């Protein structure tokens, strides 16, 4: 150190900067970065790994088995931490980097912070082409790292060691901005990582970051209040932004005080427990009939912290054409959707300010009474669907019911993609707030086990992630069973084997198509009379987990009770019905051939055309 500076390599400086960043959670000052996931190779092993090794007591590095899955684990971690803490994922050059693109897209679609540090080729180009380099003859500065531009909120490539002085603070500010939250990508060329530079000591001073709570304009609050006071049948739609803002209690209190029922989005599910008196379940294609009926009758919808994805809006058929929206969102683009009264601000602050401005206004009590009756009727249907029967294989709903019963209040249910999202959204009853994670922003098969590992790291023994995964997603990405055993972070995994991609087969045949290439029986296989089935129990045991196969719901019940007592990741497998699904929810706008030789397809097309007439037009 000299002249108020410290000489470090660029890689060492990055790590020293990151370990000196802090945040506050419930009044406690904690490191902003909870750790790093790393698979080392040429491009990050000789310089960045050398720097990470020196700080492993402050910034633990966990070794993943696949770059995509370790970055997905980082997504699960930050979900569990409500975007207050972030994980790092680092990879080598080439396929190590491109493996993380899908995870970046998951973080981007879900508005979640994730710091990606990827190795890059040499800026001096002297040894080109290097191992794993993809050459672009017309644009030689292009590398595979440019593929992250489409799925990053912040993107940079460091070509001089001094550039991190401005780049890193900007990357962190982006990840912590409620309006622009998402993944930050920084490419680290190998020859720049090794260079020593005299960095100002001030760059490494400890900093505590505060998550901003932007406030809406006075006129926006007034406009929202004016519209809401005219409402006869309002509905609150609570999205993931409610949870990330910490506004769950405020929204629940607002609903009860004003007599407005609350529906949730998929990302918002878990903001309330299932038996809250204002709660009517999730809304949309995978939602409850109670929420759907209330949405269809709503004259004013108060959408809080949601991007209004098609699975929530029923492809914009769930609401009446003349329904009006109040959109509370930190992101201007979300707040302005569908000609809404836009309230651009933090969910918690905005709800409190609207409530104060409403005075003593409340909705007529009949609205809440209707909602409670509808939701009670829905719960009776759910109960009936979860009752064990003697007919063939158990349904997803029955499996979810058994697992839900054995889950402790502090356990978190984790799933993604396929048939289990719809079945858990409809059938899973949250016993405590913030104990539900269904990755459906990007609907990424393979998130389940990776995300569960991230949750396990975040929970630190305060409850266990219960991962529900289908056979298709399990086969796509399962190595984090081994990761969790290796690192000592326990998960309970329930594998539902329905013989292929069951839910997409439902969509295919439901739109008039023939079953094709989804269920194993409909695939191009060597011997359809003797289709080999994976022994998921043996496979999990081979990766070091405890495992049991269950032949019935009663065996699953006993196995779940046992799984709660084990000392490491425990996998339970059960065969399930590929054709039984929980009814209810909204319809979906999908592409159906305009012409077809199949009568079933022509009928589905006619049905779609009728359905599309109900769509609201908007932006």
Could you please describe the fold and organization of this structure?
The chain is α/β, with parallel strands linked by helices and about 625 residues long. The chain folds into three domains: about 5-210, Thiamin diphosphate (ThDP)-binding fold, Pyr/PP domains (Rossmann fold, 3-Layer(aba) Sandwich); about 220-375, Rossmann fold (3-Layer(aba) Sandwich); about 385-575, 3-Layer(aba) Sandwich (Rossmann fold), CATH 3.40.50. Helices cover about 35% and strands about 20% of the residues. The chain contains 24 helices and 23 strands. A hairpin with a 2-residue loop joins strand 2 and strand 3. It starts with a strand and ends in a 7-residue tail after the last helix.
Q: Keywords for this structure?
A:
about 625 residues; alpha/beta; Rossmann fold; six-stranded parallel sheet
Summarize the amount of helix as a percent range: 25-40%
Radius of gyration from CA coordinates: 25 Å
Task: Briefly note the structural class of the backbone.
Answer: alpha/beta
Low-confidence stretches: none
Q: What is the fold-level CATH name, i.e. the topology of the largest domain?
A: Rossmann fold
What's the total number of strands? 23
Tell me the name of the CATH class of the largest domain.
Alpha Beta
CATH superfamily of the largest domain: Thiamin diphosphate (ThDP)-binding fold, Pyr/PP domains
Q: Cα distance, first to last residue?
A: 56 Å
Taken together, the total number of domains comes to 3
Largest sheet: 6 strands, parallel
- Strand content range: 15-25%
Mean pLDDT: 96
Shape: globular
Number of helices: 24
In terms of quaternary structure, what is this?
Answer: single chain
> What is the correct CATH architecture of the largest domain?
3-Layer(aba) Sandwich
